[in-house]
Design goal:
About 5% of the residues lie in helices and about 55% in strands. By secondary structure, the protein is mainly beta. The chain has two domains: about 30 residues, no CATH class; about 130 residues. The relative contact order is 0.17.
């Protein structure tokens, strides 16, 4: 076995080694470095994992505008949470509510863990109105961006309206938290 093969084999073990020269140029051997802790091969050296729990509490008011009769209305409270951090830096949360047999509102949020511990939250709100709650007729949309400080709460309100036919809308109030997981 050559000296280089022996060196590679020694380095593959659980000890950190440093090459030293013996018997002139071109001849190498390895000895343990004194006082060094052993580290398994292929163990990545990484910073401590950061994990944040982002919780979104939402209150969603929907109003389906009717030409004849009373408007259909409903208020819904929902909650979603995700753990995000250095290993899984983003999480998606979706909230969907329908009313009146023809109106559906979808709220999709993407939470992203920032390196300073804050959370960036991007939201897309879509309002669908048609002949059923499963319609693909998108009649209104809006989006928002929030930053949630570390160990804190942020409140935000957003409205999505039917910009195609008018009348229908949804008011959404959010409370978003960012605490250690």
């Amino acid at each position: 076995m050559s000296n280089n093969e022996m060196l590679n084999r020694t380095i593959s073990s659980v000890r950190l080694m440093r090459p030293i020269s013996i018997r002139g140029a071109g001849s190498w051997s390895a000895i343990p470095t004194s006082g060094v802790n052993t580290v398994p091969q292929n163990t990545p050296v990484t910073a401590e994992e950061v994990r944040r729990r982002v919780v979104v509490a939402a209150k969603m008011y929907l109003e389906d505008d009717e030409t004849f009769g009373r408007n259909e209305t409903g208020t819904f409270e929902m909650k979603a949470d995700r753990v995000i951090g250095s290993r899984q830096p983003q999480g998606v949360m979706t909230m969907i509510r329908s009313i009146g047999g023809e109106l559906r509102v979808e709220l999709e949020m993407t939470a992203i863990a920032l390196t300073d511990g804050q959370i960036s939250l991007h939201g897309d709100v879509k309002l669908y109105e048609g002949t059923s709650e499963q319609t693909n007729d998108l009649d209104g949309q809006t989006s928002f961006d929030l930053f949630v400080p570390i160990n804190d709460f942020v409140s935000h309100s957003v409205r999505v309206a039917n910009t195609d036919e008018g009348g229908d809308f949804s008011d959404i109030t959010l409370a978003v938290s960012n605490f250690p997981a």
